[in-house]
Amino acid sequence: SAPRHIRVLQDTYPTDDYTNITPTISSKLSRRLHAQEGHPITTLRSLIESHFPDFAHLSSLSPIVTPHQNFDSLSFPADHPGRAKTDSYYINKNAMLRTHTSAHEVEVFAKGTERWLLTADVYRRDEIDASHYPVFHQMEGAKIFGTDASSIDQIEQESQRLERQLALSNIDIEDVRHISETNPAQTSHDVRSSEVIAKNLKFCLNSLMYKLFAGIAGAAKSDPLRVRWIEAYFPFTGPSYEVEVFFRGKWLEILGCGVVLQSTLDRAGVPNKMGWAFGLGLERIAMILYSIPDIRLFWSEDPRFLSQFTHGKFSTFKPYSKYPASYRDVSFWKPSSDMHDNDLYDVVRDVAGDLVEDVAIIDRFTHPKTQRHSLTVRVVYRSFDRSLVNEEVNLLQSRVVSCLQKLGVEIR
Ligand code: PHE
């Protein structure tokens, strides 16, 4: 049966029916890749910080937050799917691992900080493949302003300065209206002030995209960097946008952003300010800038990985020889009490850690008479630093199978 208490970082917590944090996940909490000198995530963080020199640069907030901080303080509705145990890691019903850096908005604004960047590890239950890992890093940036006429004027002047700079850059921006019927200003906001703030946000981020990607995204140096703005929805901003960058023939989603919900600022005790916020994922950008092919590599302690990087420098990662992969399939009937795909992924991660490269559901069907659901799952095992022998892979797979049986599945 489950233990009554668990230790996470320095503290002991009672468990309850929300508890779903696993030892594999717990072990990541103290790694702090974003504070490791020379690590690609840290170099990228420094580059972004250098784009916002007059902002407070924060990076030491605890990953353990309350669901109130992560969701309620940002006006997430009570039934938002992100709150589900299947999507987030809970220590118990009152303590969870932050799923995004926005979890800290209220506390940072409440300290009186008006311009800040916050870098942190964030945790989400997810699928397993080369670009999905249950821990990744985000940077949140935010700026709030006074709303009197002269403050609004100052924002406009700063925006014009940024606009003139961008006009000299080889960048092609596909814009979207600041405010529209489908992406409205908040009802409590003066529409023009909201527009001024949205425009300032766009210029700041377009010039950040140029700093990060110029000369990388295009096929040739002379190709412009293509950036696209699209309408988005977040519970804690309005209007809201997503920014995408064109890279190797595809639009890649880089960040989410918008005008901060006034209720966030009210909760933080700064009701007469207005502002913008954005949140971006560092791994996806670092994989492009360094040509890192697999997200697990960021967690590698292998000198063949770490020794390739120098703090403050971007270089192309040279893959060292890959050891062979082995795969094992398993077919089973799902338990009648519903089992989420993420439960399966956590079982595999917990057994195999970073030895699992991919988990794919290769077949699903429902028995026409019994209505039972069957899955066939292929697990791909591969180590970054050695060849796995057959016996070891068999052992891993048999542990996966017996953990699945504990979840109530029936092996076919
Ligand atoms: N927190 C959002 C996410 O993780 C990103 C975001 C941050 C959006 C700030 C708007 C404002 O997807």
TrEMBL record:
Record's function text: Is responsible for the charging of tRNA(Phe) with phenylalanine in mitochondrial translation.
SUPFAM superfamilies with a match to the protein in the record: Anticodon-binding domain of PheRS (SSF54991), Class II aaRS and biotin synthetases (SSF55681)
Q: Which UniProt keywords apply?
A: Aminoacyl-tRNA synthetase, ATP-binding, Ligase, Mitochondrion, Nucleotide-binding, Protein biosynthesis, Transit peptide
Entries under PANTHER family matching the protein: PHENYLALANINE--TRNA LIGASE, MITOCHONDRIAL (PTHR11538:SF41), PHENYLALANYL-TRNA SYNTHETASE (PTHR11538)
GO process terms (BP): phenylalanyl-tRNA aminoacylation
Q: What domain of life is recorded for the organism?
A: Eukaryota
Asked if the record carries the keyword Phosphoprotein, the reply is no
Q: What is its EC number?
A: 6.1.1.20
- Entry's Pfam families? FDX-ACB, tRNA-synt_2d
In the UniProt record, the signal sequence range is none
Task: Give the top-level enzyme category.
Answer: ligase
Q: What is this protein called?
A: Phenylalanine--tRNA ligase, mitochondrial
Protein location: Mitochondrion matrix
According to its UniProt entry, this protein's organism is Russula ochroleuca
- Specify the Aminoacyl-transfer RNA synthetases class-II family profile domain's residue ranges: 25-319
